[in-house]
Structures are given as C-alpha cells and as structure tokens.
C-alpha cells in the first residue's frame, strides 16, 4: 500500500496525464461533433411541398429534399422502382441520340442519377429536379392522367381495386391526386388530399379543378392559359410517338402564387446552374435487366384545343353533361379565343417562367408499337375542362 504522500503524487501525475491527454481527446471529440452536426445539417429532410404520394411521417419515407435543392424519391420495390429508374436513365442517357426521347426531356424533371445515404449504401433514391423549388409561393397540383390507373400486367384484384377507387377514371381520363393553393388574402395555403379528387363527379369536376387556380381573391386565368399551352406541348409529343405507353403517371402543375413576385429569371438561372453542378454527385451505376426502350423518330402531328374538345365530345359523350357549355356549343368568339391561347406564344413571353407542367411518376412505363390512346384521351379531356374554366 502506497504512503499518503506517494499516493497523492501518483494521483496528481495520473490526473495531469489524463487532463493532458484529455485535452487532445476533447478537441477531437468536438471536431467529430462539429462534423456530425454539419452532416446532419446536410442530411435530406422531408419535402415540405409534397401534395401526393407516400408522405414522410405517414409512411416509412416520402419524398425528401437534398441540401443541394434536388429532391430524392426512394426507389420502389421491384418491378416498379427498377422500371422507373430504367426509364429515367434511358431518357437522360448522355449517349441518347433519339430525337424523340431527347424532346421528352423538357417535359420531365431533370434526372441526376441515384443517391444513397452514407450509412445505408444499398438504399437507393432517384435524384431529381425540384420543379417547384424556384417558386416563392408555389401552388402545386398532382393530376393522374389516363383512362386506366393500372398497367396491363396488374392482377385482376389490383384492377378492381383501382376501378373501385375512382369509377369515373375511364370516362373522365384524369384524377386530381392532391393540391396546395396559396391564398393571397391570408398568406397561407389550402391543401386537398386524394379524397378530394375522388369525390368529384362529372357535374362538379370543373369547379373542383378551378379551385386550384383560385387564390382567394381571383381566378388566375394567366396560370390556366399558360398551363393549357404547356399541356398542348405534351399532347403534341404523345401524338407523334408510338414507342411508349404510360400508366398511373401524373402531371405536376406549379404556378407562382404571389402576385407581387418580380421577374425571377436570374434567380431561376442561378438555381439551374447550382443544380447542374450539384446534381451528378453520388451517381450510382446500377444495372437493370430489362429490354431497352424502343426508339422511333416520327414527325410530330400537332392538334389544336378545338380538335381535342371535339374529340372529347364525340368519344366521351360529355356534350350532355356540365363539362361543356350549356349553350349551343362554342361560339366563333370562343373559338377565336381558344386559338389565341394556343397559338399566340408572344403574349406569354416573360410569363412562362411563372408556370410549370411536368410529367412525373414512371413506375409503369412500357415499350409499345402503338400510340398511347389512354394518355392522349386524358390530356384532351383535361384540356377541355381547363378551356371551360378559362372561358367561363
């Protein structure tokens, strides 16, 4: 047993040694803590403006926001996830030479490959452009397009389930999955879930869709007009292609909700450059075993909204319902206004940046050798209703 003096001396030496070493350890721990804090600050967070699909906190994971401004969509289980990833990689492949697929890029969110959390390298996310990211007060709506919300390979039970959810899908051709509308009078948002869209009938569809373009004070006819123009561009793409069929895919609508936002061109270009630099990081090369998408280069045949309206009236029988004017069809004045909406692009110069319409959700895209009549039908039907809202 040590003498008290010797014991104290030993304790002092050990304590001094511990403190001396501890200083280094303490500094190292602080640095690690700062690193972890910075990593947490850079960690993806739930996307605040998601309006449809699996949402964070309700399901295991929803759409996430990456710190560089892109969004992260977790890869779904096979075959849906690999199918969607394969679609994006084919369309945005650097070696892609197909003019038709290249033309499709402008209608999709930009694709930056895949991303995985550092601590979960096998957990894959699609890294995509945040279409609403450049808007100050974005109004957002997700609309499923097509006469069928299930693909040809769906089981009989799955088909019945989807039909039961919205029996009017085949007749109407689209379904509102959710919306988020900025109200200028209160400075807040009104949100609607998928149940809202499923509650709409042929009689209430026009009013229900118009709600997305009403800011609490007025109907945003400028946003409707520009949306029509962009949908027409997508319709023209579909009318010229016979290589792909899209099922359970959606259009994402975004427009600037604030009436007092100045020209955002510089800000938009800045964010685009930032995303282009940040986007490709952490690309993961994943080999998906599936047949390559067919490619064909056909001449795009354009149709006017009037042709779309007449088509919907003829095929869908909407003429006997409230989806068309209760008067004796469109007057020459209405026809003139419709053509002006589609053809007078000069009037939209400087304004198009305040509206976006992009195609999203590609877990059920299949090669084909015929036109996608179901999707085309849905686009024409949607154009018809939007035109009714604009004219009324």
UniProtKB/TrEMBL annotation:
It comes from the Eukaryota. Its EC number is 2.7.-.-. SUPFAM superfamilies: SAICAR synthase-like. Residues 266-280, 342-352 have a biased composition (Basic and acidic residues). GO terms for biological process: inositol phosphate biosynthetic process. It catalyses: 1D-myo-inositol 1,4,5-trisphosphate + 2 ATP = 1D-myo-inositol 1,3,4,5,6-pentakisphosphate + 2 ADP + 2 H(+); 1D-myo-inositol 1,3,4,6-tetrakisphosphate + ATP = 1D-myo-inositol 1,3,4,5,6-pentakisphosphate + ADP + H(+). One of its GO terms (cellular component) is nucleus. It is an enzyme of class 2 (transferase). InterPro entries: IPK (IPR005522), IPK_sf (IPR038286). Residues 266-287, 330-352 are annotated as: Disordered. GO terms for molecular function: ATP binding; inositol-1,3,4,6-tetrakisphosphate 5-kinase activity; inositol-1,4,5-trisphosphate 3-kinase activity. Keywords: ATP-binding, Kinase, Nucleotide-binding, Transferase. Pfam families: IPK. Gene3D superfamilies: Inositol polyphosphate kinase (3.30.470.160). The keyword Kinase applies. PANTHER family: INOSITOL POLYPHOSPHATE KINASE, INOSITOL POLYPHOSPHATE MULTIKINASE. Belongs to the inositol phosphokinase (IPK) family. This is Kinase.
């Amino acid at each position: 047993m040590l003498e008290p003096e010797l014991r104290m001396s030993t304790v002092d030496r050990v304590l001094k040694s511990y403190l001396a070493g501890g200083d280094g350890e303490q500094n190292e721990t602080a640095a690690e803590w700062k690193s972890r804090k910075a990593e947490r600050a850079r960690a993806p967070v739930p996307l605040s403006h998601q309006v449809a699909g699996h949402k964070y906190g309700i399901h295991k994971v929803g759409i996430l926001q990456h710190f560089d401004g892109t969004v992260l969509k977790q890869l779904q289980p096979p075959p849906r996830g690999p199918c969607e990833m394969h679609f994006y990689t084919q369309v945005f492949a650097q070696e892609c030479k197909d003019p038709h697929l290249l033309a499709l890029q402008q209608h999709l969110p930009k694709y930056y490959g895949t991303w995985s959390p550092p601590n979960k390298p096998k957990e894959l996310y699609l890294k995509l452009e945040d279409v609403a990211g450049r808007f100050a007060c974005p109004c957002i709506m997700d609309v499923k397009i097509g006469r069928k919300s299930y693909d040809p390979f769906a089981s009989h039970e799955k088909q019945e389930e989807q039909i039961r959810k919205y029996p009017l899908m085949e007749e109407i051709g689209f379904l509102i999955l959710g919306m988020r509308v900025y109200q200028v009078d209160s400075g807040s948002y009104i949100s609607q879930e998928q149940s809202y869209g499923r509650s709409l009938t042929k009689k209430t569809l026009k009013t229900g869709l118009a709600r997305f373009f009403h800011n609490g004070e007025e109907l945003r006819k400028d946003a409707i007009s520009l949306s029509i123009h962009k949908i027409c561009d997508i319709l023209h793409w579909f009318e010229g292609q016979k290589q792909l069929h899209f099922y359970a895919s959606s259009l994402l609508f975004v427009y600037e909700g604030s009436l007092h936002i100045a020209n955002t061109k510089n800000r938009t270009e800045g964010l685009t450059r930032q995303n282009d630099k940040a986007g490709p990081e952490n690309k993961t090369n994943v080999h998906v075993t599936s047949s390559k998408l067919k490619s064909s280069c056909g001449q795009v045949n354009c149709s006017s909204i009037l042709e779309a309206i007449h088509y919907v009236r003829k095929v869908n029988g909407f003429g006997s319902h409230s989806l068309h004017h209760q008067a004796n069809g469109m007057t020459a004045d209405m026809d003139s206004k419709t053509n002006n909406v589609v053809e007078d692009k000069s009037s939209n110069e400087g304004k198009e940046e305040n509206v976006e319409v992009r195609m999203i959700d590609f877990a059920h895209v299949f090669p084909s050798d015929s036109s996608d009549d179901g999707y085309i039908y849905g686009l024409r039907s949607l154009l018809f209703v939007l035109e009714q809202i604009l004219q009324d």
